Amino acid sequence: QKEVEQDPGPLSVPEGAIVSLNCTYSNSAFQYFMWYRQYSRKGPELLMYTYSSGNKEDGRFTAQVDKSSKYISLFIRDSQPSDSATYLCAVQGGSEKLVFGKGTKLTVNP
Amino acid sequence: DGGITQSPKYLFRKEGQNVTLSCEQNLNHDAMYWYRQDPGQGLRLIYYSQIVNDFQKGDIAEGYSVSREKKESFPLTVTSAQKNPTAFYLCASSLGARANTEAFFGQGTRLTVV
Question: What pLDDT does residue B1 have?
């Protein structure tokens, strides 16, 4: 079983839609959960960072962690064409190494 | 501006050649990492270094080598032993080698074997 599973998509939505991106992980030792955004031919950049179960909101973005089910989500409200990118979830625990999902490619159509 | 600089942006290698990818950071970070990204594969860790003059293999180290002689620099050599080197290579750094530290990425080097 892979440490982090992420549906690669691709996902295509109309402008203004609510987007839901999800990952599952297998190791309960993971404590830190991140979402990175990667534009085409660029390096990833940190978008959201959470610790422990619950929600964290930043503008149009909400990160959600459910440790009991080992499930993490990123919601994008009022999606914009500029949100078109690949979104990577990442988890981190006692090993100190980041473990990445495969990434979900999102296209927001105007 | 502080950040991570990878060079070159594009690199072409002939079969059987070794090539070295450069990664320099001026963030005063202790930890540095090399990842390989292939379509549909996500990011896979090649090597990482938590301190100068020390580094560890990641998940796919075969055919690669690194050095960490200076805190700011972590070059990656793709050797002729790497059978399928065509990929997008990303360098990253973080403040420390412990959890709860954000990783900052460079803009990547796209390596193509010709």
Answer: 61
Mean pLDDT of chain B: 91
Burial category of A58 from C-beta neighbours within 10 Å (exposed 0-12, middle 13-18, buried 19 and up)? exposed
Q: Do the Cβ atoms of A100 and B43 come within 8 Å?
A: yes
Contact A31 B42 (CB under 8 A): no
Q: Using CA atoms, how far apart are residues B42 and B38, in angstroms rounded to an integer?
A: 7
Count the neighbouring beta carbons within 10 Å of the beta carbon of residue A84.
17
How confident is the model over B102-107, as a mean pLDDT?
Answer: 90
Short-list A84, A94, A75, CA closest to A35: A75
Report the alpha-carbon distance of residue B39 to residue A31 in Å, rounded.
28
Interface contacts A/B by beta carbons within 8 Å:
50
What is the residue type of A71? Y
* Closest residue by Cα to residue B42 from B85, B78, B87, B7: B87
CB contact under 8 A, B90 and A88: no
Condensed to tens digits (0 to 9), the pLDDT of residues A42-53 reads 999 999 988 878
Closest-CA residue in chain A for B110? A41
Mean pLDDT confidence for A60-67: 95
In 3D space, the residue among B8, B1, B5 whose CA is nearest the CA of residue B72 turns out to be B5
